[in-house]
Amino acid sequence: MPLTKAQISELRGLRLKKNREAAGLFVVEGSKVVTELLAAGQNFEHIYAAPETTVPAGKSIETVTAIEMAKISHFPTPSPILAVGSISRDALRTDELGKGYTLALDGIQDPGNVGTLLRTADWFGFDRVLLSPTCADLFSQKVINASMGSFARVRVITTELAPVLGSARVPIWGCDLSGEPLSSIGPPADAIVVIGSEGRGLTDEVAATLTHRVTIPKRGHAESLNAAVAAGIVCAHLRT
After folding, report:
1. Cα–Cα distances in Å, from 171 out to 160, 212, 239?
2. pTM above 0.85, yes or no
């Protein structure tokens, strides 16, 4: 059955955060990312695919024409498959931060970095990721694509960081150029790693909750490290 004008309009509108929030839906495009998310257990409300597109076995799809796909795609060059999922958000449980490893992102606004940080948390087996409300939208395509399937595997909670970190009873590490060298601090059994925004660093409120300021000693002349790279180095140290 052909897509209606209303369906096309709604699917196109989901490129904007306000429309995603209003509809409670998000979109992701591309055979690779949709397949990765399905393999990770992501459920989709609808999967639209152009004719002769290969999709995972057992998944119900709605075949659309190339013209229809071009109308609903969010990309200049349409992908052969587009999936629609429901937005759901986890809430932080009481005393949850007291056990395991948490990665907290304070105002990371680049969607590619947020997605990469989800992959990093997934790679190192972190128990959860906290996003401040000023981070890039978790349900934007750029975040989901950059996460390479980790979007569906990592527990992510969006919350104001300062209040929850302030009540946590575990070491809280934050990167700071004037901090202690990372190699001089032994990894604790439970911890929170806080990563600040690319341009501004940690907010004052979040910085005040840190128990340890750590630095990654440099040998060259670069001014700073990318937020995702820095997080990867700290996470690797915790897992040694």
Report:
1. 18, 7, 15
2. yes
